[in-house]
């Protein structure tokens, strides 16, 4: 079965189906990775895998039911039992609330019958020598580098009983580099998102980290409180990704989220920021390309298995500071009277600014410069109040210069509220969301200046 082409598996599963409707999703995944510690490579490897998802739908007097079964390492003998299991799940389920007519009319992918794309250790051909150079520079500079580089390529094949034949190849690369002083008392982190490792240079990141370790030679204790704070693009991405995960239209209409209007309705059309911020998603954004059609392995607040194959258009979620769209499936769009706005595969914030983070630091009289956030958790869905910690370097800026490293903090903030208080947005650039990098990596954000970021307590974290 491992030698069977993915499109042949999809076709065979559709042939075996006896349900009223069927969607088959074959995900072919390959990964290559490098890991290092103490200025030396420790491990590397390449993996391959396949997951098959069968979604069966059964029509009944009360409505259409769905059954979803996913399995990995499916053999030829497993294929029919997998299809039957999905059909049995559908027949045993009640009518699906999100049931919609099958998607039709999406043009077939011209490469549907071609072999899946695969990554290999060759993706690191230029990166690995540069990493070796970074090790040498770090060793000579008295610092130690730790981290990993991971590249994943997933070819997804979607076939339906209504004739859709779609395929999308999604490359996804992450680089995380951590520099430490030999006594482990100072630590700095940098990360990058990439499609092919041709646009990331570990020597550049090492140079950045060397500067930060130098800043950290002077320690300054600060109490909890509200500080003017520069949020770097990675922190902005982590906060706004969580905001978008909480932007389902149905939840807002039902009065359960920060986007619900007191007394009923939603906040669509409301001004969320004084800055001309535009938050958008675009499957064709250069360097951040994502699937141009819905790929839904399960149903939820912002996804429906009945929408598989539905085209995903470019969407502005916030336009010039005004809330313009909430995420909808076809079902929730019909319920709420809103346009269909499928979930997002990338996220871009355009703020209209052109200054780099370094230039924003240079114009800061007194404030904090963060590196990144982590352990972000929701406190109150009604306001989208989040809590979390700073990590790997918080620095004090005075008169346009970084003068030392301060202690870490726990913060309490709502990203929606932060947008309303932001006084400056820098230049938008590709970034790696550190907290959510296992789930979401395709983001481009500016740094934001917040005049009164709430550092609610001092943290002992590093």
TrEMBL record:
Known SUPFAM superfamilies for this protein?
Putative modulator of DNA gyrase, PmbA/TldD (SSF111283)
Q: What range(s) does the Metalloprotease TldD/E C-terminal domain occupy?
A: 225-456
Biased amino acid composition, Low complexity: 87-99
* Top-level division of the source organism's lineage: Bacteria
- Tell me which Pfam families the record gives: PmbA_TldD_3rd
- What InterPro entries does the annotation carry? Metalloprtase-TldD/E_C, TldD/PmbA_N, TldD/PmbA_sf
Q: Where is this region: Disordered?
A: 87-107
Question: What PANTHER family is this protein classified in?
Answer: CONSERVED PROTEIN, TLDD PROTEIN
Identify this protein by name.
TldD/PmbA family protein
Native species of this protein? Streptomyces flavotricini
């Amino acid at each position: 079965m491992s030698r069977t082409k993915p499109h042949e598996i999809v076709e065979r599963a559709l042939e075996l189906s006896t349900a009223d409707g069927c969607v088959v999703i074959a995900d072919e995944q390959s990964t290559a990775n490098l890991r290092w510690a103490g200025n030396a490579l420790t491990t590397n490897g390449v993996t391959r895998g396949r997951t098959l998802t069968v979604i069966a739908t059964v029509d009944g007097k009360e409505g259409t039911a769905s059954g979803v079964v996913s399995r990995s390492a499916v053999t030829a003998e497993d294929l029919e039992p997998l299809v039957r299991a999905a059909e049995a799940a559908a027949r045993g389920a009640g009518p699906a609330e999100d049931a919609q007519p099958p998607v039709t009319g999406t043009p077939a992918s011209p490469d549907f019958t071609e072999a899946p794309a695969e990554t290999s250790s060759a993706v690191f051909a230029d990166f690995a020598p540069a990493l070796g150079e970074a090790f040498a520079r770090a060793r000579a500079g008295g610092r130690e580098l730790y981290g990993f580089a991971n590249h994943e390529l997933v070819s997804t094949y979607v076939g339906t009983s209504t004739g859709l034949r779609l395929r999308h190849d999604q490359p996804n690369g992450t680089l995380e580099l951590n520099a430490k002083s030999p006594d482990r008392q100072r630590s700095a982190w940098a990360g990058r998102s990439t499609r092919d490792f041709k646009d990331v240079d570990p020597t550049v990141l090492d140079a950045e980290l060397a500067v930060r370790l130098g800043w950290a030679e002077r320690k300054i204790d600060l109490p909890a409180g509200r500080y003017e704070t520069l949020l770097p693009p990675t922190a902005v991405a982590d906060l706004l990704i969580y905001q978008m995960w909480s932007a389902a239209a149905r939840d807002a209409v039902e009065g359960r989220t920060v986007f619900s209007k007191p007394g009923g309705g939603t906040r669509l059309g409301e001004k969320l920021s004084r800055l001309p911020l535009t938050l958008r998603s675009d499957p064709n954004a250069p360097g951040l390309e994502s699937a141009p059609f819905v790929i839904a392995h399960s149903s939820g607040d912002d996804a429906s298995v009945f929408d598989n194959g539905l085209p995903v258009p470019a969407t502005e979620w916030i336009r010039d500071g005004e809330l313009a769209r909430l995420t909808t499936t076809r079902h929730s769009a019909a319920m709420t009277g809103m346009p269909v706005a499928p979930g997002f595969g990338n996220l871009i914030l355009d703020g209209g600014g052109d200054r780099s983070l370094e230039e924003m630091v240079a114009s800061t009289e007194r404030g904090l410069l963060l590196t990144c956030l982590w352990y972000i958790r929701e406190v109150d869905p009604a306001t989208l109040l989040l809590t979390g910690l700073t990590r790997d370097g918080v620095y004090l800026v005075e008169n346009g210069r970084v003068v030392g490293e301060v202690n870490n903090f726990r913060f309490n903030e709502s990203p929606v509220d932060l947008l309303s208080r932001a006084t400056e947005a820098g230049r938008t650039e590709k970034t790696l969301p550190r907290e959510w990098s296992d789930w979401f990596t395709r983001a481009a954000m500016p740094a934001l200046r917040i005049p009164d970021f709430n550092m609610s307590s001092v943290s002992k974290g590093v």
